[in-house]
Each structure stands twice: as C-alpha cells, then as structure tokens.
Amino acid sequence: MADAKPKVAFYWCASCGGCEEAVVDLAEKVIDVTAAVDIVFWPVALDFKRKDVEALPDGAIAATFLNGAIRTTEHEEMAHLLRRKSQVLVAFGACAATGGVPGLANLWDRDTILHEVYRDSPSTPNAAGVLPERHHRSNGHEVELPGFYDTVRSLDQVVEVDYTIPGCPPTPELLADAVAALVAGTLPAKGSVLAPDVALCDSCHRRSSKPDQLSIPAFKRPHQVLIDEEQCLLAQGLVCMGPGTRSGCGSRCISGNMPCTGCFGPTSRVRDGGAKAFSGIVSLLEAKDDEAIERALEGIPDPIGTFYRYTLPASRLRRRRIDTVS
Amino acid sequence: MAEAAPLVSIVDPRQFEPRIVAFFCNWCTYTAADLAGISRLKYAANVRVIRVMCSGRVDPQFVLDAFAEGADGVLIGGCHPGDCHYQEGNYKALRRVHLLKRLLRDLGIEDARFRLEWISASEGDKVRTVINEMVRQVRDLGPLKVQVPREVFAEEVQ
Description:
heterodimer; A: Rossmann fold; 5-stranded parallel sheet; two-stranded antiparallel ribbon; 9 strands; 13% strand; B: 158 residues; alpha/beta; Rossmann fold; 4-stranded parallel sheet; 4 helices; globular
C-alpha cells in the first residue's frame, strides 16, 4: 500500500547543495525516512521532472522541504508550484529561511553582479563581453534563461511558509525529527521554527567559562590568535554569534573550536538578527572614546558579512538601497 | 552660537520635508529639549522625539526600524561622557553607533542621516542647533528610498 504513505518532496533554489547533503547525512536513518514516506520529487537524487509535479493534484504532497533563496523567475515559479501541490511547505535551511549567504548579493544588483561574474573578473575570458540573455536564437532554435532578480528573497517573502528548519545546513537530527513529527501528526503550530527558541549560549558547553562581567579590549579574527579550546570564545575577543543565534545545532562549530557565525538565525523575539547580535556584542568593548572604539573594531572589517551573513534579505532593510549601487 | 538659517513657517509643498526620528535620553537630552521649549527657542518641526530612559536603551533595531518605516534621518541624544545616569549607558550607545554607522554606509544610507549627540540638560540651545542643522542636511540629501522595488520579471511569474 505505497499510496498510504505521505508524499514528500525536496527541492533546491539558490543554494549550494549543502542542505541536500543534510538529507544524505541522515545515513542509515534515511531508510526509516523512505520507509515512512514516498519521495515524489528530489531533483538532486531522483529523476522526476517538473511535469511530474504539475501532474499531481493540488495538495497531493504532504510536505515539501525547500532549500535555497529565491533569486530567479524559475525559483519563484517552483516555489509557487510546490506551494500549490503541498499541504505543508517547509523552508529548509538558512537560505530559504532568511536568505542565507546568497542573500549577501543584496549589497549589489543584477547588472553589477552579471558584469562582474561574466565580464569584469580577471579570470573570465570574455572578449566579446557576452552576458546572459533571457532569450537567444541559435541555429533556428530559441533558448531561454530564467530572469535574474536584483534582490534575493527568503521563501516566506514569496509564498506562505508553514514551518522553518534553520541552519547552514540544518542538522540531520532536526530533519529526522521533522519527518517523524509529520508522519506521527505531531507537528507544532503553523509558523513554528522547528528548533529550540533559546540562544546558543544557553546550550553551549563553554558557558561556565564566560565571565560574569564580560569586557573585550579588542575584537580579533580567528586566524590572528591561538584559540583556547575550553574558554568562552567571546571572552577571547572573538566575534561569536552565540548570544544572538538560535540553539539547536549541537554547537558543532564551537566544538570545532570556531566561533558561531549565526546560521540558525535569531530567536523569535528578535526583529533584526544582525542588529540585535551586534548590539549585545559590540557594547561589551572596553573602549570609551571614538578613537579607541574604532581601533577595537578593526577586528570586524566587514560588519554585514559578520552579523548578517545568513540574514540580510530577512533584515529590516533587506538590501542596500538600490539607487546607491554603482 | 551661530543661528541657523531662518525656518520656513509656512510649509511649502514643493519642498521636501524630512521626517526625523529622535531618541532622547530622559535625564539629559529630553530635559534639554524641554528647556528649549520653556526658553521659547524655535527649531524645525521635522523631528519626532521619542523619550527613552538612556541612550544605551536605543537598540540598533530601533534605528533600522525607523528607517524601514519611513524616517529620513535618525538622531540619538544622550548625556555627555561621564555623565550617564546609569554610569555606562552612553558608552554602550557610542560603541553601537560606531558599528551601526559603518553598517548603514554599506547599505547605502548616508552618514548625515544618522547622528549621535551628547546634549546635557542645560544645553537647550544645542538641541535647536543640532536639529536645525540635521534637518537642513537631510533635506539636501532628499528622501530616503529604502523600499525594495517590485521587479519587472515578477509580472511574468504566475
């Protein structure tokens, strides 16, 4: 009775493929998942086509796990299609949830990106200056490329999203839990983020080494110091996004002796993840005058890449002012 | 203190009137604004003052919210260094403002649209000078357009 199993789909938009790895990383648990559900669409692994999805009745898919940000007309069309065909749509991973690393493209626009990538970068031989076109005729054939937007969006800025699983990538545990909850019918209220709603510091194993009064002389970058393996990373002057980041990753980066970069995004009480995080972290500096503060901040050469690495499209301003992109 | 350019008493609809959100601390700058009022000092009417207990209470999220909701400029007023009612609040504000300024620059928001000033309770005159100067600068910059434009291709997606 294969029909009795809930149908599940996986899809990717603007993403690197790491979220697909998270599915593969289920390892032997993937057998439990495939035993419990029917995978009807998963372009990275299975040979189903868009027309197969289109042929399904609306709402036929129990849950679609969509990773990646929305950047092209194709992404947007697939988001709408899968929304229509799915009872539950899950924004899977940081890019779908909050824009992710591709969202940093919101510091530029379509033309500056295409010019840099296809024409101006020194490693690109393109003497004719050919740029991607929407429509192109060749040997009597018309070929077409998706439109490329100026602004990268998170999934919930395009279609209604039922659940979010954060992370770059999400952990296999969170995915397995979500699939189990789906099969058992125990998913929480719609709109929930399927990860704990507390800061990473709350579950960090270095927490006891954080001083009561944290005071930072200057920020340092990971390659500039020998990082102690026991002590709180903020106390060592490293920008650790733990205080401003949702827990649920198992503090894997901290265990690898690297500071948190914030891929799980903020908790539910926060309106702008990057601003809230740096508000707490930067105010810990010792410096009290302009010059000393500037010196102490030299360890943060790229504030947006540091505090909004995964969340720029979901931030209050969402992008650089488009009329100021040169 | 040099007096600012004369204020326009009748609003000229052809002239852009900036909207500026000001967060003034209860103990110094808000009291100074009160003093400016009691002293009948006139300053540009473009500023919406929000009283907070301390400049250290101004979360950078408030500033971004203000810009996102239509402010053309944001002004924070706090006690002079060493004078904070809560000892350290204005230093926390100063550290955040340094990073926030760099961030706003990266987002295409000009420096003159975001300003931190130390104004003590006795400096009603400085409230007037700072507000008039900032209104003039932001008016010259024009409206802040932070809305994300709807894109042309979106129309062809069903």
